[in-house]
Write a structure and sequence with these properties.
heterodimer; A: alpha/beta; Rossmann fold; Alpha-Beta Plaits; 2 domains; six-stranded mixed beta sheet; four-stranded antiparallel beta sheet; about 30% strand; disordered C terminus; B: mainly alpha; 12 helices; about 0% strand; globular
Chain lengths: ~300, ~270
């Protein structure tokens, strides 16, 4: 079994003069739950369209399971792109029959995925009578037909009510725990934080960051220090071994360190340099504000 | 054979539960059969009316007599050949409006497989219509007083195949427009504009030996106007067989449409 599932190199796509994607590199390994995070129009769906062979790239290449894409490797991948696309006049079973035929999956498997997604009761109802949440669940059911090795989900909770969102996230987590590799595109940080093990942040078709979600989280912690002599504090903290950067906010200095923060160590260090702190606190930024920070201030730059 | 059946099976699921398709094809089949069965009485009516004013008696024309029935009925059936083309437009543009083509491609259908399935469906449609026309002809012919059984199997039976090819050419043209334009409404309008107006203008402006290469004209030429007794009276005689040139032109266009459809599917984002 190969460990690298998907390797993307220098992928670019233009729609007329609009650059939807420029030079994307990405490597996804077996078993990862990989989040593609970015605001609307950042190139997530374009990326997924390309790696699924529906959209043709202008430059760059990608390899699935170490090979160029063909319809045989597509049969190992289950995907939903944007909206659930089915024949409105066919019921769930007939719609899935078409997919099962394409994938060479026996029709018995249809019952299994309908059970998994909780659609068994409505299996004989036409697709056009479904609520949006049910349509989305049918899309996930179709992507899971035939025990696919990779599941690609494009905004799977978009347009769902809170109950539906929780349900879909639970479903994704349980699929991931069975070892299926998942690629999840989302503009919701919270979703990526809850579900994914790895993340790539996209903005305007450029990858800003990629790595494990834990790395991102460690980067969201700062230490806020207050002192009577702020200018002395500023020169001294630069000598702190794990110093990364700092900002002055009012009467406080906000320190960013390499790795996880250790307030007591910082306190000890400052004390030995003759600074006594009037305030010391750890600030855990939400991923949300971190996301806004990197997409807002450093377009095109890797912050790690 | 098994592989072909497996390719068609999804198409059958799409069609068999599609009410619009069955209503339209039911209407088409009913219109076709009624038209073909009432042909004799319509022609008799005309002959009687003309005879009232004509100095020469015009003999009545036995439409359903073997083997002429094959040419007569396929010629008249040709008037309705737009219907199956509309069915094809609906079935193919549906895949774009419902985005199900995209879904099937990301699921693992090759573009070639998709096209093969659609063409197989088109061929099946033209065969079904050909069988319908043939059975109507056979029944109508057998219902005549003292039919000549020896003439049932005549070279004129080939007109049934010619009619199938005529429908096939029309439907492949419709398939090409559907893939090119993607939306049902615009495809129907362009199809009507081209077939009813544009190609007729081209045909009018171009010399006959060139205009016969136009796709729809070539399809229309496959079954020539039958020689009625009236024409015999005036000494006019039309061809009573399908020319191999027209057959070749139609097959040529079918190949061209197939290649263009494949190229569009390969080169366009879905």
């Amino acid at each position: 079994m190969e460990d690298t599932i998907l390797e993307i190199k220098g992928l670019s796509k233009n729609y007329g003069r609009i650059k939807a994607l420029s030079g994307l590199d990405l490597t996804i390994s077996r078993g990862q739950v990989y989040g593609l995070l970015g605001p609307n129009g950042s190139g997530k769906t374009t990326t997924l369209g390309i790696i699924l062979g529906a959209t043709l790239p202008n430059h760059g290449s990608f390899r699935w399971f170490g090979q160029t894409l063909d319809f045989k490797s597509l049969k190992r991948i289950g995907a939903i792109l944007e909206h659930p696309n089915f024949f409105p006049y066919l019921n769930a079973v007939d719609n899935l029959r078409i997919i099962a035929r394409v994938r060479c999956v026996p029709e018995q498997d249809i019952e299994r995925v309908l059970q998994l997604t909780g659609l068994s009761d409505r299996r004989k109802h036409r697709f056009q009578t479904y609520s949006f949440g049910m349509k989305q669940r049918l899309a996930i059911a179709s992507a899971m037909l035939g025990n696919t090795e990779v599941l690609i989900l494009d905004e799977p909770t978009n347009g769902l009510d809170p109950g539906g969102i929780a349900e879909i996230r639970g479903l994704i987590t349980s699929i991931a725990s069975s070892g299926t590799t998942i690629i999840l595109a989302s503009h919701l940080l919270d979703e990526v934080q809850k579900v994914c093990s790895h993340v790539a942040v996209l903005q305007k078709g450029v990858k800003l960051f990629s790595g494990s979600v834990d790395d991102v989280l460690s980067n969201t912690e700062t230490i806020v220090i207050g002192s009577t002599d702020l200018s002395k504090l500023e020169t001294v903290i630069k000598e702190y071994p794990d110093y990364l950067s700092h900002t002055i906010r009012g009467n406080y200095a906000e320190l960013k360190t390499r790795g996880l923060c250790n307030p007591s160590e910082v306190n000890q260090f400052l004390f030995t340099r003759g600074i006594s702190c009037s305030h010391l606190s750890m600030n855990k930024k939400s991923l949300e504000s971190y996301f806004l920070e990197i997409t807002g201030n450093h377009p095109g730059a890797d912050t790690i | 054979m098994k592989k072909i059946l497996l390719t068609i099976y999804p198409e059958w699921i799409k069609i068999s539960n599609y009410r619009t398709f069955w209503i339209l094809s039911g209407l088409y089949a009913a219109t076709l059969v009624i038209l073909l069965f009432s042909l004799q009485s319509i022609l008799d009516n005309i002959t009687v009316n003309v005879n009232n004013k004509s100095p020469l008696p015009i003999p009545s024309f036995p439409v359903y007599a073997f083997p002429g029935v094959w040419q007569n009925l396929t010629y008249i059936a040709g008037f309705l050949k737009m219907f199956p083309a509309f069915l094809v437009i609906i079935l193919i543009t549906n895949e774009f409006t419902f985005r199900t083509l995209k879904q099937q491609v990301i699921t693992g259908t090759s573009r070639l497989g998709f096209m093969t399935a659609k063409i197989a469906m088109i061929i099946a449609l033209s065969l079904v219509v050909a069988v319908l026309v043939a059975s109507t002809g056979l029944i109508a012919g057998l219902l005549q007083k003292s039919p000549d059984y020896n003439l049932i199997l005549s070279p004129k039976l080939l007109f049934i195949a010619a009619h199938a090819l005529e429908l096939l050419t029309y439907m492949m043209f419709a398939a090409f427009l559907s893939v090119l334009l993607k939306r049902a409404g615009i495809t129907v309008i362009v199809f009507l504009l081209y077939s009813l107006i544009l190609e007729r203008i081209f045909s009018f402006k171009l010399p006959d030996n060139i205009s016969r290469f136009l796709p729809l004209e070539a399809a229309g030429n496959l079954v020539p106007l039958p020689n009625s007794s009236l024409m015999k009276l005036f000494g006019i005689s039309f061809s009573d067989y399908t020319s191999w040139q027209d057959t070749a032109i139609c097959f040529g266009w079918i190949v061209v449409f197939t290649l263009v459809i494949y190229r569009i599917l390969l080169k366009r984002d879905l």
